[in-house]
Amino acid sequence: MADQSSALLALGDPTRLAIVEHLIQRPLAVVDLAKELPVTRPAVSQHLRILKDAGLVIDERAGNRRIYRVDPDALAALRGHLDRFWEKALAAYKTTAEQPDEKEN
After folding, report:
1. pTM of the model
2. Tally of structural domains, the chain
3. If we measure between CA atoms, which residue out of 69, 35, 36, 49 comes closest to residue 6?
4. How many angstroms separate the CA atoms of 39 and 43, rounded?
5. In angstroms, what CA-CA distances link 39 with 35, 44, 82, 84?
6. In a domain, 27, yes or no
7. Tens digits of residue pLDDT in 82-99
8. Does residue 32 lie within any of the structural domains?
9. pLDDT digits 0-9 by tens, 37-80
10. Has residue 78 been placed in a domain?
11. Residue-number span of the structural domain to which 53 is assigned
12. Degrees to nearest 5, angle at CA 73 with 18 and 31
């Protein structure tokens, strides 16, 4: 399961975000990801390690390759975290908007 802080930090990098976007579409090996990104295979591997450490991707061995995919439970937890943040922000906005304007008094 992803730690939300680690997950958000990991997704803050544009290359890692692009990797996750590709893996949402379908599971891929490092070599296949590298073909779709403007970075080298070693760089893709480093980014995947960070995403894996953050709990966002999981891998499984398929012959001599590792196939990576997004962990749906981690994305669901991250979405729940963001939803709670959004709900708090909307509630604070509503409270502020409903306060009487001091200039009117």
Report:
1. 0.80
2. 1
3. 49
4. 6
5. 8, 7, 29, 35
6. yes
7. 888 788 888 888 888 988
8. yes
9. 999 999 999 999 999 999 999 999 999 999 999 999 999 999 99
10. yes
11. 4-97
12. 35
What CATH number corresponds to the domain at position 22? 1.10.10.10
Give every CB contact of residue 64 below 8 A, 6+ residues apart in sequence: none
Cα first-last separation, the chain = 52
Whether residue 24 contacts residue 70, with contact meaning beta carbons closer than 8 Å, is answered with: yes
Asked if 10 contacts 56 with a C-beta cutoff of 8 angstroms, the reply is yes
DSSP string, 65-97: EEEEEE-HHHHHHHHHHHHHHHHHHHHHHHHHH
105 in any annotated domain: no
User: Would you say the C-alpha torsion 34, 38, 42, 47 has a positive or negative sign?
Assistant: negative
Decide the pairing of beta strands 65-70 and 57-62. Answer: antiparallel
